[in-house]
Structures are given as structure tokens and as C-alpha cells.
Amino acid sequence: MKKLLIYTACLMAMISCQTRPTNLTVDMMVDLANEVVTTVTPAELMNIMETEEIFNVIDVRQNNEHYYGFIPGSVNIPRGSIEFNIATETFWETEGLYMPEKKETLILYCKKGKRSTLTAETLMSMGYKKVLVLEGGWKNWEMTYPDYCDKNLEMLAGGPAKHDDGGGC
Amino acid sequence: MKNQFSKSVVAILVSLLLPIAVLFITVKVAAYRGDPDQVDVKLKSEHIPSVDHSQFEILQQDFEHPRDVTAACLSCHTGRDEEVMATAHWKWEREEEIPGRGMVSVGKKNLLNNFCTGANGNNGSCMRCHIGLGWKDKSFDFADNLNIDCLVCHDQTDTYFKQKGQGGMPATTETANAAYQVPDYPYVAQNVGLPKKNNCGICHFYGGGGNNVKHGDLEEALLTCSKDVDVHMAMDGPDMACIDCHTTERHNIMGKLYSVSSANTNRIHCEQCHTTTPHNDKVLDNHFEKVACQTCHIPEYAKANATKMYWDWSSAGQTDESGHGYSEDDADGNHNYLSIKGNFVWDDHVKPEYYWFNGTVDHYLSTDTISEAPVKINSLFGEYRDSTAKIWPVKVHRGKQIYDVDNNTLISLKLWAPEVGQGAFWKDFDWDTAARLGMEYNDRPYSGNYDFIASEVYWPINHMVSPKEQTLTCIECHQRDGRLTGLNDFYLPGRDYNKSVDYAGFGLIFLTLIGIVAHFLGRIVAFFKNR
């Protein structure tokens, strides 16, 4: 009887290991994430920005993509560091913003929507309750609201002027 | 008793297994896909000249002018000049019937667009893509056969170029610079043949002022692409040249551009090689009636380099502190602001928009007034009820362009001039002067009162055909938020539904299940009672 229980437990463990998909392509990963992630159109995002008080629009592209054009008011947290920065007080202080609570609305975007979908799945697994993804990403926003886009010209010009902190002669 | 039991077991098994078997067979049959038919045609022509042009004495002279080369060509190829001069490549216009308008002349010569607004009046720059030599102004003689530039289409050396700003002339000893040298005419003239991809691409890839700006599906990546970009032109595939599909008879090249031609004639079609039933699958082949091949087989365009999707002229003209024009880029390195042109949005790997299209097109003509915003630079005809119309993938280029507020007309701008102070917007950044001079050149009235208005132009997509593994799957259209969401004049299975019918269907399924369960329980009860 004891042996039978051990065999059954091993079998169950093997079956449970098989349920986690492996060897996926990035498109398959995005498709899987799409099953649980909610999207918003640019018009719906504009409506949120105009009507809601507490929300965060997050650009998950790399810094050097963000500077060239972004949704006004969005904060740039590249996908590679978002798990570390999203709940780090000092990061949000640097941005001059309050750290979002887990019940707050987060709207993510990237260039076309794939990176932000994967990021949204990650944030949802971290406990964020209302994570939305901008359908079609920055390119869709740019096409829909071409007059409501921003650029970081200071960073594009090489960043703020370096200070000479003194020392020496 | 034992016999009774085994009969019952068999009955239960049959009642369970039979429906499963029927379901299994149904699904298998529905999922069956035949292997596509093999294309039984010669994909690539053998572009081997039938003669060695280097042997001809007449081509061994020191030509001083490209007109002399043309004269030498025509001395053997007699009558070809008449063929060339009858084509739209030469005339830049053609008489065509537009439904509802009758016969009109349309072409690059007189149509407006929402890229650089129009060629006429900007000859130095735009007419570089004319197959003539030196269409610098209205004095260009279209009846002079020595104005034909044979070399631009037939050069095999890739060393013959028309110089920027010279209205279609190659560099001369006076105009040559680091970028454009005087061509080695004897060398080029002795090495001529059927047009290669480069010969066509030098103009057709760069329409709108840069690579892939206009078409979205025609760009320099096609010169050396993989199958992922285009199965026909792929280096690792058939490596077909433009003229392998765009077959040519007496210099009349088949397959004119849909966006600037009105009548559905002189087209080339996929079925010329692939037949109308290429899939060897009845369900897929039936789609041919209402869906263009391009719709499924070109799921996205601009697969290598980005294409321009939006062009806002209203922001053009800003200058830096010293009064000079400047540029800004987007994250992919494409200009998204130019003082001479305004703001742009570029995109790559773009999903097309879908429209009904029967091959006929209307155009905003230079004599038209604006009746709606956004202004439709062209309109594709077609609807579901039109038996000749199919669903087509389309690039829609949107923008804002200058128009005459009082006359309610789109303005033809003078954009290009060789020098500052000649009124061209690209040199002087003066909207009013550029509008006045542009309209004057085109013999159109200008009130002096201008503003900017939204406009859009439709470009049916034909190139960048994907490998069969990357074609659209059924679900991409047959679902509620699929690719065909915008086409609402017909019933599309999987997308369209009626709540009452759905409730009735689900109700019937539910009642059937209840009936099955009740019957099953009844049989069980009866079995034990009979014991």
C-alpha cells in the first residue's frame, strides 16, 4: 500500500511538471499571455487619462527608444528591470511620483504591444490587480494621436550638462 | 444473467463510443487540408541578351551626351521609340474611364497626393524618375524620340544614374560632383539587357522621397531578401525579377499601379501562374470568389524597413536659432521631423487595413473641390454586393496637407528649386510663395488664403508575399475582433452573431444534454429494476 502511494505521488509529480509549457516561441508566449491580459485602445487610454485620477502609464521599452517619442506623462521602466523597480520606493521618488499600490491602474505600452503583454503577465503574477496593455503599443498611439506625443530632447542631445564637482586645482 | 450484463456493457460502450467516433471523424474531416498544387511554370526568365552589344561598332564611340546613345540604340531597334512614347512611363498620364466621371486623363503628371503633393512644378527633383532626359520644365519635347533614356531601364552595369536636381539627366562635366560622375557611356551602352530589379527599383523603391516611403511593399530589401520577406524575389528562392511577373510586350509593361490607375485593365494576377484553385482544398479555394490572394498571403508589409504611415505638413517650416532647417529621428532611426516636410509616423511589419476593391479607382483631380474631410486622394470602388469586388489588403497613408481655404482645393506646392530665393518651400520655408508658384505652374487658381486639412490615400498591397507557413490563419478573420472588423456589409462566420439565434442554439444543446442524461439514468434504473 505504501509503495502504491509513493508510485502515485511520483506519477502526479511528473504529470504536474508536464503542465508547465516549455520550449515556447516568443509568439506562443505572447499568445498565452494575451489570454489573461486586458487591452485598451488608444481612445480608451485617452479617456482614462482624462477622467481617472489615479493611474500610471508605463513605457516598458528601452530608454533609448523612449526618448525618441512617448505618451505625455508616461514613466519609462524598461521591461528588463520592471520587477525590481515597480515596488521600489527610491525609483518612484527619482521619477517624482508616488509608488503605485497593487490595486491601482497600470497601463503598459511598448513599440507594438508584445513586450508590454509579457510584462503585464509578470506584474499580474506579482499581485497587481488592474494591469492594462495599450493595443498596438506606441505605434498605434502615434498614428491615433500624432499631435499628442512627446520627446525627451534633452536626453537626445546627450543628457543634462555634466557638473564639475571640484577637486584638484 | 451474465449475458444480460454483457449486453448492457456493450450498449453503454456503444452509446458512449459511437458519438465520440462520429465527433472525431467530423473534426478530422473538417481539419483536412490538401497539399497545395505545385506551380507548373517557369518562374524566372533567362535574362541572357541574344546579342553581344559590345561587338557593335556604333556603341564603341565616345558618346558625349545620352541623346547620342539613344540615337545609336534606335538606329538598330527601329520603331521601339514609338512603343516607349505610347506608355505611361513616358507620358506620365493615361486616358481612363472613371465610373461616374467618364474619360479623364490621370497620371503622375496631373494627380495630387499627400506625400510631396505633386510632381508638376518640382521637375528638377521629381522628374528624375521620368524615363526621359531632362524634363526640367514645360518646354520638354515629348515628341522628340531622342529624349528617351534607354539606359536607365536597360543598364546592366549598375553605374548609370540620373543626377539629383537635374530633371532626369545624368551628370555632365558641368554638374558632376562626388556623388554623381559623368557615366561611362560606351561601357554602359555595350552592356545593356532586360531590366533587372535595380533598374525598376531605382524609382519604384524610392517613391515619396526615400526607401519604402510610399508603397510599403516595394523597397530595396527586395534586391537581396529572404523568403520571409518575399517568396518570389527571395535570394534563397526563385530570385524572380520584376519583369518575370510584370511581363512586357512591346514596352507595354503589364501590371500598372492600382493606386494611380482607374480602370481595371492591363493587370497581372496571381492565378496566371497559380490557377484559381491552387490550394487543392475546397474551402480555401472557395475564398477566391471574395478574397484577394494578397489578403491571406501578405499578412503584413514593410517587413524589412519601415514605411511612412502619416505625414503632417502643417508642422513643416520650423527652423533652428540660425534659421536653418533641422531634422529629428524616431527610435528606429527614421526621420520623424524634417523642417522641409513636417512630422511623420513610420511603421514596420504593418498589418494592412482591408477594403472591398473591384480594381477601379476614383481620384481627387486637380479640377475638383474638397467635399469631405479627410480628403480622399483616391477611393477604391467595391462592396460585398459587387460580384467583381474582393477583400484586399491596403496601406492607407494619412496626413495633413495644405489647401486653399477660399477655393476649397488642394494646393500643388512648389517645393524644389536649385537655389534659395526662387520661392521653393524646401529652400525658403515660405508657405504662401510656395503655394502661389506651385498653383501658377499648374495653371490653377490660388486665393492666397491657405490652411491644412486631413487627407488619406489608399495603396492596395501586392508584394512581399509570405511563405505559406506564415499566411493568415482562419481565426485571424473569423473572430469577433479579427482583421475584418471594419467590413460590415456581409455575414462573416465566426465574427457575426445574433443573440437570439445563439440563445436558441445553446438552449437546444442544453435540452439535448438533459435528454441524454435523463435517458441514461432511466436505462440504469430500468436495468436494476429488471434484476
Automatic annotation (TrEMBL), chain A:
Superkingdom of origin organism: Bacteria
PANTHER family: THIOSULFATE SULFURTRANSFERASE RDL2, MITOCHONDRIAL-RELATED, THIOSULFATE SULFURTRANSFERASE_RHODANESE-LIKE DOMAIN-CONTAINING PROTEIN 3
Organism: Carboxylicivirga marina
Rhodanese domain residues: 55-150
Protein name: Rhodanese domain-containing protein
Pfam families: Rhodanese (PF00581)
Signal peptide range in chain numbering: none
Automatic annotation (TrEMBL), chain B:
Cited InterPro entries: Multihaem_cyt_sf, Multiheme_Cytochr_ET, Octahem_Cyt_c
Transmembrane segments annotated in the record for this chain: 503-528
Superkingdom of this protein's organism: Bacteria
Protein biosynthesis listed as a keyword: no
Alphabetical keyword list: Membrane, Signal, Transmembrane, Transmembrane helix
Transcription regulation as UniProt keyword: no
Listed NCBIfam families: octaheme_Shew
Protein name (Swiss-Prot/TrEMBL): Tetrathionate reductase family octaheme c-type cytochrome
Organism: Carboxylicivirga marina
